[in-house]
Write a structure and sequence with these properties.
heterodimer, A: about 110 residues, 6-stranded mixed sheet, 11 strands, B: about 110 residues, 7-stranded mixed sheet, 4-stranded antiparallel sheet
Amino acid sequence: GDQVEQSPSALSLHEGTGSALRCNFTTTMRAVQWFQQNSRGSLINLFYLASGTKENGRLKSTFNSKESYSTLHIRDAQLEDSGTYFCAAEGGGYQNFYFGKGTSLTVIP
Amino acid sequence: NAGVIQTPRHKVTGKGQEATLWCEPISGHSAVFWYRQTIVQGLEFLTYFRNQAPIDDSGMPKERFSAQMPNQSHSTLKIQSTQPQDSAVYLCASSRQGTNSDYTFGSGTRLLVI
């Protein structure tokens, strides 16, 4: 089964508003990474967290390994934030990631 | 830093033909990963190399797919006897050994099998 459950699968936000994306993990993960896939299909690295919270501009991410979840908060959404957001969790003995199925975000003017 | 370079960007191949996809990781990155992305299946892990050695190929289809990393500057994904269901975007990523904090994806190769 899927080790990374991402929600919601789709989200629409008006410009200037905010929301949170969430990933739940079915097993203990040691780190999480969030990516944005833009309209050209490029996957852009947003955050890598082994614990705690990181913030960058209008984005903030938290990883709670004990409770097996991570969140990505977007505030003051802009049109260029539209795209698909993926979380990927690092677990086990290898360096490869388990990816969620993504959240498709549409920012509406 | 040119990032992870994937070539070609687009490839159209006839059913039954072979397709070879190339990936050049970021210099100094010793971990290389291959993924496949489709609308239906999403992002699927295929295989992973560390210091050119195959570490985990659990996502590779057992037939027709193979991956190699003959030197630290490039990896190839080869699909023999391509089928329409192989149509996808194939993504390569690289990272330094032992940490994914600088995990970087290439722009992908869009493969269309007709």
